[in-house]
Amino acid sequence: MSLHHTTGHRPATRTARGLCLGLIALLVAGCTPSRALVDSPSSLLMERAVVGPQVTVCPGFLPSGVRCHTGTSPAGAAYLMAMPADWNGTLVLFAHGGPRLGPPQLSETVEDLEKFQMLVTEGYAWAGSTYRRGGYGVRSAAADMEDLRQILWQAFGRPALTLLHGQSWGANVAAKYAELHALDHDGRKTVDGVILTSGVLAGGTRAYRLRSDLRAVYQFYCRNHPRPDEPQYPLWQGLPEGSTMSRAELADRVEECTGIGLPPAERTAAQRARAASITGVLGVSEAQILPNLFWATMTFQDMVGRLEGRNPFSNQDTVYRGSDDDLALNQGIERFSPDPQALAQLAYDSDLSGLIVVPTITLHGAGDLVASSSHAEAYRQTVERAGRGSLLVQVYTDEAEHSRLSAPAYPAVFAAMLDWIKVGRKPDAASIAVGCEPLSRRLAEPCRFLPDFTPSTGF
Question: Residues 174, 165: contact at Cβ < 8 Å?
Fold first, then answer.
């Protein structure tokens, strides 16, 4: 296997220098979104259509007796809240993953609620925001979560407890919130605990190395993204501004080059060799190629656009290993170095300090194919360096899933968090696994915790 980074995220070698509702797709009201990575104050002062919270019909997948509300924040973010009849007094603020590109749609928040409806069934009030705009921007999304908290507290009163749940890239958002907004101006807690699931927690300056490396390695072998007869652009750009490419179009190019998507018997020897080199160098499965390449196309286009066309990525000092000819690969691959200003902007927006002030639990599938468990380990190291390790608990399951793990894992972690907050009993992986068992029987899905799992050393 491999591409070895001294940081250890996966097998490449870098030197130290290589640093609504009604279930319709509702477009968020407001003005044209800012293209900046971090929204300027002036962009937030433009006139917005503020609505709610208004009573609305709940999605049909929720239990009877649940009350739902929706509305739009002053910044233009639509939100949805579901309050069960047997509410336990805890409000869950949900930060969604992505980043989702294009105009925000409340239907996507409905999908988030459907995925985590077991929390409502277990008595939690749940509220999710679309964020004010699509695209990359961790700080602006964290500000939208703070807006949501203020709106709901003002409308319904302060709940007994407020928990922040971040999923995938939303865990980066929630972790940034925990550093910026967990205390108000008077030093009082705005949230009582933070739960980060399947989290992209290495910070933006490290989290996208796999995808930037994939983009370069793929192009070395395939030469079809872009094709020789198409306009050329640096690979770190994702796509030129204004260009579009569907996932299906990209899948056709991947299949053409590697045979991925075809039955094995229909692949040519050349296709098999190219696929083997790409997966061997990057240390990934064939199933990971297309989704990561798509993110390295469309998400990179969005990120670079918000950085005013400057490059935040680097492979200048990477030594690629694991191919059929490492010398040719390292001599012929496209190299790029980050623009210092772009790197600083991305770090400011999304990197984490670890200076948490409330109990925090991370939950991660050990075999996560989208954001590896090394993200959680990287976050542990960050929090430990900040001297806040006593506020962090980490648990893992035996799953390779990313978007949603086995259902009882979530209420098990939430119950452990409530116990930690209310009686000061800090959980560990073993106690959370024990607490999961009755939930497994109730939700008819297995508990899959790995109490003794240790992830790779991270980035």
Answer: yes
